[in-house]
Design brief:
Helix content is about 50%, strand content about 20%. It contains twelve helices and ten strands. Helix 2 (about 25-35) crosses helix 3 (about 40-50). It is elongated.
């Protein structure tokens, strides 16, 4: 059951004042901030009631109040006004996308860095393809007598390539066989179908005589497909976390988390498409007095990308959400165009 209208208005004022200043909020500050049509004594009584509900708390004696995670959750879900980006803000973000023939990985990395700069938090960005995405292109391009470039592109818009050196000659005949095999057996399959045993079996069935020669190249195809399926993570603004005194020593724990790719992927995998806000204790692995705002967007037919912001619980949620939504829409459109062109 929600508090009454006046209590909700007071809670909203406390949350917004705390977001702006990072300091406990007293009744006088609330009265000065907005006209509630009542006395300071009434405001104090209402604040006491909000404290009993677990929505605000007093960090120490004689201090004002700060929102609890429950208070932040109520504010985000019921009180926060939706923010619209100004023309100036959109123009600044649009400048990132004004690139001819953009490289998807670089674009995603740059987007994360700009989000970190705007929000003054840490950013996590990824072109994370679903394992159900399909392989649109797989080819081997000779670079020298015993070296070749192996390239794999998926329906999620992610393209990966790697140079492969062999202990055998890369002949025109071998390239023809590899090209025919990849076109017949690999292109059009889901990433989840590209396993080492499957490729080995397919190569043996297709041409038992050259299967062992093909396999070093096919191993690279498998590794690239796995990388696309797992998704690349790009970090930005990690040092911003050290500027928030309320994070204290937990800032170093957060920095450690950001270096643990598997744990980070596990946390982020819980979020579906759209924008989601998770407060520290709501995560399967609690992160303390922190916030994680995640925007997951579609790329191509089956893939997804993601931009997220990690910071203290005291962040400007309305502004961050507006920026992430705009970024996601623009990135999704541009990456989908890139995938179609590829």
């Amino acid at each position: 059951m929600l508090p009454d209208a006046r209590k909700l208005k007071i809670l909203g004022a406390i949350v917004e004042a705390y977001i702006e200043t990072g300091e406990p909020v007293g009744s006088k500050a609330i009265v000065a901030r907005e006209d509630f049509g009542c006395s300071s004594a009434t405001i104090r009584n209402e604040m006491a009631a909000l404290a009993e509900m677990g929505l605000i708390e007093q960090p120490h004696t004689s201090a004002g109040r700060v929102p609890t995670p429950l208070g932040f959750r109520l504010y985000i879900d019921h009180l926060m006004a939706r923010k619209r980006l100004s023309d100036r803000e959109r123009a600044m973000l649009d400048s990132l996308f004004a690139v001819r023939d953009p490289d998807p990985d670089q674009l995603i990395r740059d987007a994360g860095n700009l989000i970190a700069e705007i929000t003054r938090c840490a950013s996590i960005s990824a072109a994370a393809s679903s394992v159900e995405a399909e392989i649109l292109k797989a080819e081997v391009v000779p670079l020298g007598r015993r070296s070749a470039l192996v390239l794999v592109a998926s329906s999620s818009g992610v393209v990966k390539n790697r140079t492969c050196r062999t202990d055998f000659d890369i002949t025109d005949s071998l390239i023809e066989k590899v090209t025919a095999f990849l076109q017949d057996q690999v292109v059009g399959r889901r990433l989840s179908e590209i396993t080492l045993p499957a490729l080995q079996t397919m190569a043996t069935r297709a041409d038992a005589g050259t299967a062992m020669t093909l396999f070093p190249l096919l191993r690279i195809v498998f590794e690239l497909a796995r990388e696309i399926g797992d998704g690349e993570l790009y970090l930005g603004g990690q040092q911003n976390l050290l500027s928030y005194r309320e994070l204290g020593s937990s800032a170093h724990e957060l920095l450690k988390l950001l270096t643990d790719r598997e744990e980070l992927l596990g946390i982020l995998s819980a979020f579906g498409r759209g924008v989601h806000v998770a407060l520290g204790d709501e995560l399967s692995d609690p992160l303390g007095d922190t916030s994680l705002i995640v925007s997951r967007y579609p790329i191509g037919r089956r893939g997804t990308g993601m931009v997220a912001v990690l910071g203290p619980i005291r962040v400007n949620y309305a502004s961050i959400i507006a920026n992430l939504e705009y970024f996601s829409d623009r990135l999704a459109g541009l990456l989908a165009e890139t995938a179609e062109e590829d």
